[in-house]
Amino acid sequence: MTEHNVKPSGEGGDVQVWEPEQALRRMSSAEVALSRGFLRCRPEKWFPGFAARWLPVIHALGFEVRLNEIKPLLAKPPLDGVAFVGSIGGEDVVVATDRSTANSLTEELLPGGDSKAAGVVLEYLFRRFLSTLAISWSAGEGASVKFSRGVRAEEVRVAGSIRLTFTVNTVPVTMWVGLGAKMVETLDGLWRRQAQSLSKTAPGQVVLRLELGQLGVPPQMLSEYLTKGTVIDLEMKASDSVTIKVGHKLWMPARLVDVEGFYGCEMTPGALAVPSIAEGATQLCVELGVVTTDATKMAELAQAGSVLLSDIPTTASVDLVINQEKIGAARLCVYEGRFAIEVL
């Protein structure tokens, strides 16, 4: 590239059009829909006293338990190991673990025991697990619990799961709770309302801008930068990074994802990179487009992992913007591993 990182048409060298459908991680609309609620929630918040109800059993059996992680997922529980079916509030749930974990757990709790005895121990633990969930539930009326023998785990329609990982003495254990659509919807709504309750944003519409980068352009060279066919090196690594702005203000860092042919922005933790623009230069922003959303949803979106879905197709088209006004268009390209644009 020449000085100011500009090349006229025909001198772009090895410049390739960026292909977002190849470069970006794909995400389903179902994952996006639950990204601000169910997939962000902390289920343990609605089951206070759950651990305390297990203390007598833990002491009686003489083992130590350490909880490592509780994570909501859209994945289904593994059904090739040990799985039990029950119902909470009339909706079927599956409690499962893989065969290797089940064997390790029963050997730890019942050393040398035969398979029949091990099965009884496992069934007791899973039954108690389900009943404790219902007893500890604090976000509504108490739910009735039933342990189902006549329903196969494969027949249960699982909409989402809670994966628990913990350690029994020194044995790592992973347990899954497969939930139906009603429970997933309940947890999703509870977490969204909690996030919104912490927000003091006034109702209304907010315009979010999806910015890929900025250029500081000397005013006398602006026309050259906007000439059709001009290739401009943005001097930033080609990646899925994007910055969400509210007006002129930087708001959240995010990663671009492909949601069934449209751009989505998955919010990420960490500090925002503040671009440096030379004094006197015109700030030329390279944007994918804008998204209008309800201001009350901003607190939901501010969670790391939440996804903002746009109606912008996943193409290489970008807007050239000055002071929030579109003044040109370009094609996003890759040059020597960096992003570049070709002005249209």
- Oligomeric grouping of the chains: single chain
Query: Could you tell me the mean pLDDT?
Result: 88
Uncertain segments are none
Terminal CA distance: 19 Å
What's the total number of strands? 19
Largest sheet: 13 strands, mixed
Shape: elongated
Give the structural class: alpha+beta
Count of all domains: 2
Number of helices: 8
Helix content: 10-25%
Strand content: 35-45%
Give the topology string: H per helix, E per strand: EEHEHHEEEHHEEEHEHEEEEEHEEEE
Q: Nearest-angstrom radius of gyration?
A: 26 Å
Structure description:
The chain is elongated and about 85 Å long. It is 22% helix and 40% strand. The chain is built from 8 helices and 19 strands. Strands 1, 2, 3, 10, 11, 12, 13, 14, 15, 16, 17, 18 and 19 form a 13-stranded mixed sheet that branches. The chain has a 6-stranded antiparallel sheet with strand order 4-8-9-6-5-7. It has 344 residues and is an alpha+beta fold. The protein folds into 2 domains: 3-34 and 202-343, no CATH class; 38-197, 3-Layer(aba) Sandwich (Chemotaxis protein chec).
